[in-house]
Design a protein that fits this description.
The chain is of the alpha+beta class. It has 10 helices and 37 strands. The strands form 8 sheets. It has an 8-stranded mixed β-sheet with strand order 30-31-33-32-34-35-36-37, sandwiched between helices. It has a 5-stranded antiparallel β-sheet with strand order 1-6-5-4-3, with no helix packed on it. The longest helix has 18 residues. The two termini are 46 Å apart.
Length: 643
């Protein structure tokens, strides 16, 4: 890791009540921004306030390169940035005013094979020192369980010390580290088959999750206090097994916790009695939607709120002071979303992201005492604070009557009638789209296309039953949901039925490939980024990793015949132009999935363009890869489905 002090940021104070007055107007559309503006990496991502609220740690992008920045709010010219070389920066947190802890990961060669290995490091707040925590990197050597809040530089990390399952170090132990020196001691020895540990607010290891891949056997181990032996409180066995509710947060009140449960068909938050080990009253649920995330205080003992998504991400605060602040922000920002993303120890300084699906957003520092906002940074310096294409959620019915939500982005200033359409299914497929900033969708809309993103069956967030409807339906009913979305767009008059293309990444790329060989007459062209083409090959690849048996079970359950839903076996049926883009450094979907598909298509003289990005990964971490992809996409669509 290297350090320097180059940084630039905006900073001036304005009253919260004035924010609504400077909301970006939806003016008559100007010429669209250049392609490079949409491809720009976020200038700032994941800002975290120091305990005293005087500094911010965040990932930033400078000249297309991502760096870790530590920014004094009193004088941003004294900010420091740290580069991590070929390592990914996977997370960070403040330990005290002088130290942070960060999680790094990267590919490493071990005995002739390449492994993605992780480790944790301590970083001094003035960027003068980086301390390696532990001697060994492993697949799971960076699980930060607890951070001391007495001002001492201590953290507790669950970590493997070996990547080989026949070594005792394969099962994580928990160590207490002084991040300023790297010295540590074991506070919880490893236990065979326990890969995940959970602590309470004091740092005491209270719960462990055991899993044996050979027998698909799960156990939950629990104890009430340090020094006690662990006891099994729940167990399950089998490929479709599931455990009951377990503590998600140990509260300060003795014997009390909170837990997730989907007893009513949707993930909701319940009270949990540690004496009876049973859930109690429901604390909060979002009707028709699952909850996404629990928010606790920095001590890890108080429930502050929960996040959930209906048409967009929302926060329900249990803490009255935070609820009042959120209400004031919501009133000030109007149609935009004000999301509180970080706070200092005493909740007097907050970082708020303000934006929406049409606006890339800005980060503000909100001072509670005087009610003022300071602009910290724009997410996109090129796109600024302007609003772009409008976005809304629509509903349509699949052919079997299932109600499906989809996100619709429309070209700015054009009537929503007879438009060229891009059908864009999300990846996952255990994921969902919502009304949030999407650089693919906004770029396509800026070029004149309507973009429709269906949350097809199997998507998350809509309850247990809706997600279960996707089981066994890869390339089948899940694919029908996409063609039914096109039918809705055409019959409603929104889209020209003969001007539709499908574009997707990961599972969405698979859906694009499947559409090209299965759904004749629906699409004019198809674009796959990092898409799966060969399901049996993907099963073998996923099965080679940790808990590969469970991964194989999952993939086998996605279709009754994996070969029968693999586009590579039907390359001869493709009759529309295809664009395939894949990163050589992709560790999620190996590049061979697109290479082999492209070879099959070329051998059959099918219209295909294949682009391989030599340093590209699965997540577009490099700005140059994003630019290249949008250039290829724009040229391909202009040739095959011009707007």
């Amino acid at each position: 890791m290297t350090s320097n002090t180059v940084f630039a940021v905006l900073a001036f104070a304005i009253p919260l009540s004035f924010i609504s007055a400077i909301a970006p107007a939806a003016d008559a559309p100007a010429p669209p921004p250049p392609l490079e503006a949409f491809a720009e990496l976020p200038f700032m991502d994941g800002p975290r306030l120091s305990p005293d609220g005087t500094k911010v740690a965040a990932r930033i992008s400078v000249g297309g390169t991502q760096r870790f920045a530590i920014i004094p709010l009193g004088d941003v010219s004294k900010a420091h940035t740290i580069t991590t070389g070929d390592n990914d920066l996977n997370g960070w947190a403040w330990v005290n005013e002088d130290w942070l802890v960060a999680r790094l990961g990267g590919m490493s060669a071990v005995q002739g094979d390449k492994w993605y290995l992780r480790r944790a490091v301590g970083i001094k707040a003035d960027a003068t020192k980086v301390v390696q925590l532990g001697n060994d990197a492993a697949q799971n050597a960076d699980d930060i369980l607890w951070i001391a809040h007495d001002g001492s530089p201590h953290v507790r990390i669950a970590m493997q010390t070996s990547i080989f399952s026949d070594d005792s170090g394969f099962w994580p132990l928990v160590r207490d580290f002084d991040v300023s020196t790297g010295r540590s001691k074991v506070v919880q020895p490893s236990i065979g088959n326990v890969m995940n540990w959970q602590v309470d607010g004091t740092g005491t290891v209270r719960l462990g999750l055991s899993y044996q891949d050979g027998s698909r056997a799960y156990r939950v181990l629990y104890r009430d206090a340090a020094g006690q032996s662990f006891r099994t409180i729940d167990k399950a066995r089998g490929s479709a097994a599931s455990l009951g509710a377990t503590p998600a947060l140990f509260l300060a009140e003795p014997g009390k916790a909170v837990a997730w449960s989907d007893d009513d068909g949707f993930d909701a938050l319940y009270s949990y009695d540690l004496a009876t080990l049973k859930t109690g009253a429901k604390l909060f649920g979002a009707p028709g939607n699952d909850l996404d995330e629990l928010i606790s205080d920095d001590l890890g003992t108080r429930l502050l709120g929960v996040r959930y998504t209906d048409t967009r991400s929302r926060t329900h605060w249990f803490d009255p002071a935070m609820a009042k602040i959120q209400s004031d922000i919501d009133k000030a920002v109007g149609a935009r979303e004000g999301r509180i993303v970080s706070w200092n120890r005493d909740f007097t300084v907050l970082i708020v992201r303000i934006g929406n699906a049409s606006n890339a957003g800005q980060y503000y520092v909100y001072t509670v005492d005087d009610g003022t906002m300071r602009i910290l940074a724009r997410v996109s310096n090129s796109l600024g604070s302007k609003s772009y294409a409008p976005v809304k959620t629509i509903q349509y019915k699949a052919r079997d009557g299932l109600e499906i939500s989809a996100v619709l982005t429309l070209p700015q200033g054009k009537p929503a009638k007879n438009l060229p359409l891009i059908l864009m299914p999300h990846g996952g497929p255990a994921a969902r789209d919502d009304e949030s900033w999407d650089w693919w969708a906004q770029f396509l809309a800026s070029r004149g296309y309507a973009v429709l993103q269906p949350n097809y069956r199997g998507s998350t967030g809509y309850g247990t039953a809706f997600q279960a409807k996707g089981k066994g339906q890869w390339g089948l009913a899940m694919q029908d949901d996409l063609t039914d979305a096109v039918r809705w767009a055409a019959t409603s008059g929104l889209a020209a039925p003969d001007r539709v293309c499908i574009v997707g990444g990961s599972y969405g790329g698979y859906a694009a490939l499947r559409a090209a060989q299965r759904d004749k007459g629906v699409y004019r062209c198809a674009v796959s980024f990092a898409g799966v083409s060969d399901m049996p090959a993907m099963l073998r690849y996923d099965g080679s990793f940790l808990n590969g048996g469970r991964s194989k079970d999952y993939l086998r359950a996605q279709a009754p015949d994996l070969k029968g839903v693999s586009p590579i076996n039907f390359a001869g049926d493709v009759s529309i132009p295809l664009l395939l883009v894949h990163g050589k450094a992709d560790t999620v979907v190996p590049v061979a999935q697109s290479r082999d598909m492209a070879q099959k298509l070329k051998a059959g003289n099918k219209p295909v363009r294949y682009v391989e990005q030599p340093k590209g990964d699965h997540h577009f971490s490099r700005q140059e890869d994003r630019v290249q992809f949008l250039k290829e996409l724009e040229a391909f669509l202009q040739a095959n489905n011009p707007a």
